[in-house]
Structure formats: C-alpha cells, structure tokens
Amino acid sequence: MALSARAIEDFKQTLMSEPRSRAQMNKLRFYVKSIDILKPLPLIQKIQMCKCMELFEHKKGSQIISIKDKVWDFFMVLTGKVAISSPGLSQLIIEPMNIFGKTNPLAEEIHGRINAVAEENSFIIKIPIEKYMKIMSEFISFLEKKKSIEFIEKSIPGGKLISESGKQRILNLFTDAEFKSGEIILKEGEIPGYCFIIREGECKQVNLSGSKKHPWGFMSRTMSCFNYDLAVAGEWVGESSLLFNKPLEFSVIASTYVKAMKITSHALIHGFPKMTISLLKESVGNKVDWWTHRRESIMSTVNNGPLNEGKKDIDETFMNTERGYPKASKAAISSLRRLDLAKTDYRPELMNSRPKIRNLTPVLYRKNEEINEGWRVWSPPKARSFKYIEKPKPEKKAKTILCSGAAVSSNLLPTYTPPKSRKGSLIDKERSNSISIENRTHSPYFPIRVKKIPSFFLKKIDMKND
Fold this sequence. Notes:
- By secondary structure, the chain is an alpha+beta fold.
- 29% of the residues lie in helices and 23% in strands.
- The chain has three domains: 5-134, Jelly Rolls, CATH 2.60.120.10; 172-342, Jelly Rolls; 347-466, no CATH class.
- This is Cyclic nucleotide-binding domain-containing protein.
- One of its GO terms (molecular function) is cAMP-dependent protein kinase inhibitor activity.
C-alpha cells in the first residue's frame, strides 16, 4: 500500500521528533507496516527498526555513499530520488519507499563499490549497520524456525491437525545432525535410542542378511544386498525400531551429504500426541508391507533367472535388477494398497447405495429407560418379525439405524450385524459420543464409524408374533 503525501509528511515529522513518545512509536509502526518491502518482517523486528530509524535531509547533488566506503548502512528513500552508480553497472534510480546500501536479506544487494548521490532534494531514512545486522540476524532465525515448523507439519502424519504451539513444542524435541556421504547412520540388528527425519540429501536402506550369493561371489553389485528404499527429504528412518522396540532390519547409509533432525525414543514416545504416535505406527505398517513386497519381487527375479556357467553372463543377467522396482514413495505405497484391495470382494461403486438390512437380532429397550453407561443389550422374546428405528438428524445426510444395540450409518456398505449378547452385557463400556465397528465383511482398511444415538431417540420396538 502506497503512502499518501499527507501520510509521508506525518511520517517525516514523527521521525524528526526526539525523544519519541509511545503514541509516536505506534504511529511509526503503523507506517512501517504499510511499506511493501518491510512487510515480511515480523512485528518484533518492525518495532526494533522503528526505534533505530534516523532521518537525514540531503540536498540535490549531495553524496550519500562514497565509492571509497567499504561498509554501508541501511538506507530507505522517504521523499526524492537517489542515483546509484558502480563500475561496470548502469546507473540505477532509487525512488521513494525503496531501499539501498546494506539490504540483505530484505532485497538483493549490489556487490562491489558504489556511489550514491541525491538526484533531487531528498529525505533519507538511515539505520546503522550494527543495529541493522542484529535485527536481521533475529529475522533470519525467525525464518529458519518458520521453515522448520512447516517441515514438521509436512513430515509428521496428521501434522496439519496439530496447533501452532504443539508444533513448536514438537520442534523443540529435535536436534540437528549432519552426515557425510557413505557414513552409516543406523546399523542393522541394533535397537538405537533415536531416529531421524531427513531434511536434505538421500539415504539408502540396505539389508545384508538376505542377500543372494553364488560360488563366484555375489550376483552383482546391485544384488549384493537388498536395497529396500531410498529415503529422501521429509521421510523418517529408524522410527520402526523405536515404536515397536525391535532391532532394525536394515542399515541406513548416507548416499549424499545429509542434514537430518534427530529425536530420542523418550522424546518421541512421551512428547508426541497419542494420535500422531498411532498414525506413525500405521505409516510404518505401510512401509513394512512395501518392503516385504519388494524383497519377494527381487528374490523371485533372481531365483527364476538363468544361471549360466560364466560369471560374466551372470553379472550381465542380473546387473541393475533393482532398477525394475520403484522407490518406496507415497505413490508406490498407494499402488500396493490398491493391489491388495483388488484381491478382496470390495466394490467401491456400491459405497453410495443403500444397504440391505438382513438377519438382525431384535432388541427390546424398556420404556423411559436411561442409558448412561454404555450400550446395554437385552435378549427379547422370540419373534418372526420386528420393526427397527430409523430417525436421523435433519441436518445430516447419512441416516442412523439402530440394530442390535449398535448403530450403522446407512451410507456405508456393507452393513455390520453385531453378535448376539447376553442379558446385561456392555458393548461400549466407556462414556463416549461415538463407537467404531470394524467392517469384517470386506477390506479392513475401511472401518465404519457411527454416532451414538441419544436416549431420547430410543423408542420401544413393537414385537409381533405371528
């Protein structure tokens, strides 16, 4: 937002007043917030800049920066124009609300010696270099912390659901670590007390225990070990050992220079939310499925390949066998999941159709009875037919059907028939607003989650005996 002539004049008068009152400092902060080039600064750095600003008047032709000066201060043109010249560069004209001199990291800095001269009568804002560098060092630390929090949000399952204070608390649990190319980060067979998130670089995860050998040695360089995965920026390594307290099945070796974030087992288990821990365990399960599938595919290719007598032919046959297998990326894991679902009886086209209610065990709820401590099930008299209650909330599209002491949402398939329960047994022992029923008819990846029906929705079921 450009400042009006009246606002610029008020800005100038406020800068010229010494000492500045609290009201004048608030006015300066308001004007600084309106300058586009200073908008990336957080509020605390803007306040510090307001305290350090000095205003100088320069007549036309007066020199602001000499070509002999080796160190420059921070300058911003309030009114007027400034001409910047440097050997080997064309002349630049700095207009109002633009900066020059020591401008890094707010703007690109001109390297080498420069000469700055006022093109017309100008008012220039100046901040001494020592104070400016101190403010910018805090600003750079703020940017790094902001990037780290964004990285944490993307790298941790369910990171977007965590509050800002929670992300900051999780970030404080990590420490920085660096590894050279070829350095072993985690060793196979050990239970380390820490794991890592890769920030920069790549790591290979290899296993020597199941490698395929031949009388002449290994099949080839690529088959000398199982190259399970290539961990890149944003991926975890070693978390499976911490979560399940099991030895590592592979070694993690830096393929390039690696920067990582390290966290101990105590900080991970006691510092992370329970929801994040459960999502991490689910992510580890997906990785293990993918690694198992990859190992079986590689071994199948090796075992079924032709074994010629010459070692040269063997190397040519199996050289770079691993190139035929994808990396353990999210797309590869999703592809493996789709293959697993294709083997089941699951049909997604039926998800929006209405379920058929069959073979439901009738349940009798006594009149005016309050259900406070769970879902109580009574075995009613034998009946050939019965009525079920169907009373959804008006704002909800999915209907809630009461059947055998459990609720099943009518927009999910297939319906779940709960087992028969004895008199007085509790299905849900905790006082909660929802229950989860596992869908055992099709794939286990799709649990049915339904809302608990309040007591005032319950009515007596009319039992009819023919």
